[in-house]
Amino acid sequence: MKKTIHVEIADVDFILNGDAYDLLKDYLDELEILFAGLDERDEIIADIESRVAEKLCSHQKKNNVISHDQIHQILSDMGRPEDIYEVLGEFDLEGSANAKPKLYRDSENAILGGVCSGIGAYFGTDPVIVRLFFIAFTALGGAGLLIYIILWVIVPKADTAIKKRQMYGTKNVLHRIDRGLNQLADKLQLKKVSRKIESSVAKKPFKRKKSPTTKKKASTKKEG
Amino acid sequence: MKRDKYNENIQSQMRKGTLEFVILLIISRQPIYAGDMIKALKKYELIVVEGTLYPLLNRLKSSELVDYKWKESTSGPPRKYYTLTAKGKRFLESLLISWNTLNQSITALIKSYEKNNSR
């Protein structure tokens, strides 16, 4: 017995296998993260859905249930979110660099479960400090170890390139500080700050601020 | 290893820089929807990841360089047929000028490179 799901993609009806549905749903969710903060986010995703629907129409025989493999094939043509990110880079996805950092476990820089390293990325502090804090808290008779284990269980691992990017709030923070300083400088009519940040994430979006100013203002308001 | 990555990066930068230019050139020929743009881009081997087209199109749209009209399709969901706006046409003209200048300089450099290496 297999579950099938009836869906509407770009106003066209399809019947998907349960696992085909999950695959497509995960993909669209990831895209939403990728384009988060872009003004055009919803429209881009609608366009991509429309393309998926078009491809399904050309593959599909009447009332056929769409399989996991079919969706997989289509999505590999569309490109994984990571690949789209690779091609476009931070420059085009400036908005998503402004998204708030999210808490993940950073397994790449982990000693145990990556909890401290993830917290460090979230707050923009050195993970060593976070680790010392946990150790001190445990040694002083607190529940440090217990809290650590709970976090290990409940905080998701940053297992994709996009999640890893979301985790690093620190670069975004630098970018935001610069913008804040510039706004201040504008008021005081001082020279603008042009900090040279090694990371391209922080540097490139900074340049693009020249383009449509009205929109940028709208998005800063949203943030605040 | 590091060298390869650097090389790859430069090549993808070159491709990325021209992608919007290429899209504008394709749209300038006739009203066209994304599916056919992808066909054209694939024919000239200018795009691999289809998903990259959509953020670019939406950016061109919000910069008022292109506009679209909906058209029903017999074989699937309705399509957005893109055209250049007046602003888009002017922009494309200026891109063509920069491209031609760049092209001349690079062609000249390539010629002298080939001369030096054929001796």
Shape-level CATH architecture of chain B: Orthogonal Bundle
> Helix and strand succession of chain A?
EEHHEHHHHHHHHHH
Strand content of the residues of chain B, in percent?
Answer: 5-15%
Mean pLDDT of chain B: 89
Number of helices of chain B: 4
Describe the structure.
The complex is a heterodimer of chains A (224) and B (119). By secondary structure, chain A is mostly helical. In chain A, helix 1 (18-34) packs parallel to helix 3 and helix 6 (115-123) crosses helix 7 (127-139). Chain A contains twelve helices and three strands; from the N terminus they run E-E-H-H-E-H-H-H-H-H-H-H-H-H-H. The termini of chain A are far apart. Mean pLDDT of chain A is 72; it is low at 94-98, 172-178 and 193-224. Chain A has a three-stranded mixed beta sheet. In chain B, helix 1 (2-29) packs across helix 4. Chain B has a single domain, classed as Orthogonal Bundle (Arc Repressor Mutant, subunit A). Helix content of chain B is 68%, strand content 10%. The two termini of chain B are 32 Å apart. Chain B is mainly α and 119 residues long. The radius of gyration of chain B is 18 Å and the shape is elongated. Chain B has a two-stranded antiparallel sheet. At the A-B interface, helix 2 and helix 4 of A face helix 3 of B.
Characteristics of this structure?
heterodimer, A: 224 residues, mainly alpha, three-stranded mixed β-sheet, 3 strands, B: mainly alpha, Arc Repressor Mutant, subunit A, two-stranded antiparallel sheet, 4 helices, 68% helix, elongated
Helix/strand layout:
The complex is a heterodimer of chains A (224) and B (119).
Chain A (H helix, E strand, L loop, with lengths): L3 E6 L2 E6 H17 L6 H19 L5 E2 L1 H11 L2 H12 L1 H4 L17 H9 L3 H13 L4 H11 L6 H7 L1 H20 L11 H8 L5 H11 L1
Parallel strand pairs in A: 2-3
Antiparallel strand pairs in A: 1-2
Helix pairs in contact in A: 1-3, 2-3, 6-7, 10-11
Chain B lengths: L1 H28 L4 H10 L9 H10 L3 E6 L7 E6 L1 H33 L1
Helix pairs in contact in B: 1-4
